[in-house]
């Protein structure tokens, strides 16, 4: 069974793994190059020190040894030819210098077997010359030279030539050694230069490799991912994000692309839902417009036949009242009462259908003045019930004055109507600012509304009492809700108030409508041939 390929293993490396491997390789290469450079520097210093401190010094000492030997030979020859003791001084000085030089060379040539051999040869030849020639001549008494002394000096010339050859051989060996050290130093220095040049080139190559690796492995994938992400955020959600680079960057790219696909699915779903919602909203607007149109037309068109029914039933009541039996009079009364209540319902339905369609002249309205007008309209019922009304100063808002009048008249009228038996109504109207809205409250001490009916009372034609207990069509609070919501507010029953009824509603300052708004509202109204003619008939 085959194992994973190297490319497969490398494709799973993350950015951190690549950085670790790259840093390790860099460190190993630098360690190797540093070790090689250190060895070359050490070797250069070693050869240089050996050349300067050993070979050159040994050669110079060998030259000093040669000079000391020549001084000895010169002194011995002069003493042999003249017998003057002055010539023994150079001999003795040369002897001392020869011993010191030999000792120094012995130390300097510890690691040079050939040199130590040459030095031993020099010492042996020198010892032979001194034993055969130098010391015997130097031990003769001073004075005129004797033929024997001169003959000894002449015979010692061959031995001294041997000394000079041995010293020359030592010097030649040291010169050769020096030349070889110099050549080796030059070779090592050339190697050092090549090594450091190679180190510099390798460092540059490694830096370029690391830079290019970071660019291709991190910068390019990140930039590409950023471009793809910007393309997607620009609105092109269908653009596919192709992940590249190390495993973690590819994983990040896949996650971003997964998020893009999810956003694309959700966007597609949202677009479909929005299209369906727009279609439903259009259908709802058309249905509402048709219902309002129907209510408007029906309420107008029902006026004439209803007026005829009411007129003829009233005519029957006046003409034949008392002429028929009691049951007939009761039936006629039922018909007249039903026609009157139908007339009231139609008028209320007509007013309800006009909210936001016919009455839509938004302008700055003083709610204090509108409330005064509403109270004036309700003055008879207020006086009969003995109602006590208190009020806060009310603001001026941009609204439709007719609708505001209908709102106050319904709320205050309900507070007067639904009072407790035998107790005069006390009604309080208040207003306070809440942010950008105004909150209004109408509070009374009447019979109240049970919490379970707090929503039902705002539904059209919903009554909590029989028509015999309290008159009305059940459309008043529904109309109030429609007026308040048309002006950007909300209305509700405060169920926490239990000493009567408290209705709260909010109104938002609304800008004046544009001509396009008026045109749209005109289009939503009744056609000229039906609505206007019926309204004129009313």
Description:
The strands form two sheets. This protein has a five-stranded mixed β-sheet with strand order 2-4-5-7-6. A two-stranded antiparallel ribbon has the order 1-3. It has 14 helices and seven strands. The chain is α+β, with helices and mostly antiparallel strands. Helices cover 70% and strands 7% of the residues. The two termini are 98 Å apart. It has helices spanning 6-11, 15-82, 88-108, 113-139, 147-233, 247-301, 303-320, 326-354, 367-377, 379-385, 401-417, 476-486, 515-524, 528-537; strands at 363-366, 388-391, 396-399, 426-434, 437-444, 491-493, 501-507.
Describe the secondary structure blueprint for this structure.
Elements: H1 6-11, H2 15-82, H3 88-108, H4 113-139, H5 147-233, H6 247-301, H7 303-320, H8 326-354, E1 363-366, H9 367-377, H10 379-385, E2 388-391, E3 396-399, H11 401-417, E4 426-434, E5 437-444, H12 476-486, E6 491-493, E7 501-507, H13 515-524, H14 528-537
Parallel strand pairs: 2-4
Antiparallel strand pairs: 1-3, 4-5, 5-7, 6-7
Helix pairs in contact: 2-3, 2-4, 2-5, 3-4, 4-5, 5-6, 6-8, 6-14, 7-8, 9-11, 11-12
